[in-house]
Amino acid sequence: MIVAKFGGTSVGDAPAIERAAGIIRDRVPRQPLVVVSALGGTTNALIALAEQAASGQLILAIRGVEALRERHLKVAAELLGTDADATDVIGELSAIFDELAALAEALSVLGHATTRSLDAIAAKGELLSSVLIVAAFLKRDIPAELIDPGSVMITGDEFGKAEPRTDRIAERAGQVIRPLLAAGRIPVVGGFVGATEHGITTTLGRGGSDYSASLFGAALGAEAIEIWTDVDGMLTADPRVVPDALVIQRIRFDEASELASFGAKVLHPSTIAPAVRLGIPVSILNSRRPEGQGTLIAFDAPRRAVTAIAGKEGVTVVKVRSPRMLLAHGFLARIFEIFDRHRTSVDVVATSEISVSLTIDDARHLESLVVDLSQLGDVSVERNRGIVALVGADSAPIALPWRAPLGR
Ligand code: ADP
Ligand code: ASP
Ligand code: MG
């Protein structure tokens, strides 16, 4: 079996979903599990409306729900026409929008949104797209079957960025997905979304559908994972910044994951780990040009000094300055112990004799980090910085904290 994941732009409108159907039809003999993102832009819109509702702007939030309703129903009408089956699907989609409106109202009454309620709302994007895509596939004689991601993607309760429970996912995938594949069905599941053991909806973090694809692939021992997106593969730079960036035909697993973590949005940073462990090849392919070769992420790709350049914004730089560091041992260990205690991972580190600069992506625990670090020296924080990284397996990744925000 294989896993085929379609990102937001690859299911963004009716022609895109039509192309996805064509790609899957060609792959039926390989027993695909289809993982889908929300229609491009939907997750942003859902999070925005949840925040509006929680901050008392209910009318704006309801307008957001209605705009999404209109968009999805338009795509549904284009793909499904107006027969009785189409009417059922439209009823199903409408019910999801009614529930969204009710959730927005509840948030406005409460006056705040928890990460748990944000996940409940964000997850609706993949629910909507998967309902729509299953109906479109069935209408095109592809024997699709809708899977509830919460029935397989079991996670912890770290809402907003939940930890997958790989053993449980493998168990559930065996029970829920494998029998469908064996019966010649094409299971379709929303990416990004999971649920706790108690059935409470969680998400894997922004861009997490890639991670879902990799986790499902690992759970089912897939022969291959295909990430269908809107560019020709992994490129030597972000094509929005460097329009003539080149496609990398083969890239090593470690290089691809470094690139992803340093900002190459084409892959979610955690994507490759579950696939790497089992040696499952991952390809990145363009859903607008399915005949292209794309990029293959594999162990035996050539080693290069520099394979690609990546940039990331919104980074926080934390500096600790202390004369006590001079010739002292164990100082860095103490600093990292504090980051560990506050469950914050460090991306780039630069040290001199009396100061250490570290960059972090996730500034949720910044305040308490600074309190603890202040016991070691003077601490300063610079927000909204960037990192530019050169990645190549034949050299250590070179990452330069960028002092000015990377304006585009
Ligand atoms: P999807 O919706 O398919 O998940 P994303 O928007 O998450 O797609 O990722 C694809 C985008 O990643 C591309 O449109 C491109 O602008 C961006 N990107 C950034 N860096 C790279 C890179 N090195 N190679 C390819 N794409 C990149
Ligand atoms: N829809 C989610 C997001 O926009 C997950 C994904 O597309 O990978 O973050
Ligand atoms: Mg993505």
- What are the distinct ligands in this entry? adenosine-5'-diphosphate, aspartic acid, magnesium ion
**Number of separate strands:** 15
Fraction of residues in H or I helices = 25-40%
Uncertain ranges = none
Pattern of helices and strands: EHEHHHHHEHHEEEHEEHHEEEHEEHEE
Structural classification: alpha/beta
Quote the distance from N terminus to C terminus.
41 Å
User: Major beta sheet, specifics?
Assistant: 8 strands, mixed
Mean pLDDT: 93
| Morphology call | globular
Number of helices: 13
For the biggest β-sheet, the strand order reads 3-4-2-1-7-9-10-8
Gyration radius over CA: 22 Å
Percent range for β-strand residues: 15-25%
Short description:
The protein is α/β, with parallel strands linked by helices and 408 residues long. It has 13 helices and 15 strands.
Describe the protein in words.
The protein contains 13 helices and 15 strands. The protein has helices spanning 14-27, 42-54, 58-80, 84-110, 115-122, 124-139, 166-176, 178-182, 209-220, 253-261, 272-277, 331-341, 366-373, and strands spanning 2-6, 32-36, 144-147, 186-190, 193-195, 201-203, 224-229, 250-251, 282-286, 295-297, 308-321, 346-351, 355-360, 378-391, 398-402. Helix 3 (58-80) packs parallel to helix 6 and helix 4 (84-110) packs antiparallel against helix 6 (124-139). The radius of gyration is 22 Å and the shape is globular. The two termini are 41 Å apart. The protein is α/β, with parallel strands linked by helices and 408 residues long. The mean pLDDT is 93. The strands form 3 sheets. The protein has an 8-stranded mixed β-sheet with strand order 3-4-2-1-7-9-10-8, with helices on both faces. Strands 12-13-11-14-15 form a 5-stranded antiparallel β-sheet. Bound molecules: adenosine-5'-diphosphate (ADP), aspartic acid and magnesium ion (MG).
